[in-house]
Structure formats: structure tokens, C-alpha cells
Amino acid sequence: MLLYTAVLGLLAMGIWLLAWRGTHDAIRTERFTVARTIRSESVLQAAALGIDLLRTGRPPSDPYECQVTVTGVTQSYDCAVVFATAGDQDTWDVQSWVMDDDDPALPAMPTSF
Length: 113
Prior knowledge:
Blueprint: H1 2-41, H2 43-54, E1 64-71, E2 76-86, E3 88-98
Antiparallel strand pairs: 1-2, 2-3
């Protein structure tokens, strides 16, 4: 009888562990999906706007930093965009990220260089 109780207890714990793991994996997957959506709505749009801006000319300084507000499906994001030369003066590195409240204010992204 004691052996029967121990086996049932282990079986119950195993089933609980499988259920917990499945729930944990689903939550992790949802987090990745949300992070990917936020990145595509904010940072990637800001980088694309920066690349379009580079087509109008060269930035006035190296590195050049500016701020742009992009609108996603659910909200607007303030993003910083940095242009820096990568090797020669015709090759540029464009970086963008979502700004925090602690980040210093940057000039607005111009319409052209």
C-alpha cells in the first residue's frame, strides 16, 4: 500500500511538472512575440526612416544623433537614431533604440540633410 501511494504521488508530481512546463513555455513564447512586435513597430521603423534620411545627403556631424517619434498599431514610440561612419565617408552605420525617460533630449530628425 505504501508503494502504491508513493507511485501515485510521483505520477501526480510528474503530471503537474509537465503542465507547469507547458504553461511556462507558452508565457515565454508570448513574451518573445510581444518583444518582436514592439521592435518591428518602433526600432525598425526608426532605422528605416534614418536610412531614408541618409539618401538625401550626409549628416552634419559624425556621429549624428536625432530623435524621431514613430507610431505603431497600439502606441507611439520615441526612438533615438545615431548615424556614424563605418570606414569611409560613404558607408554609414545606423543604430536606433527606444528612448527611456532618463535619456537626454535629442534634436528632432530633420526632413533632409
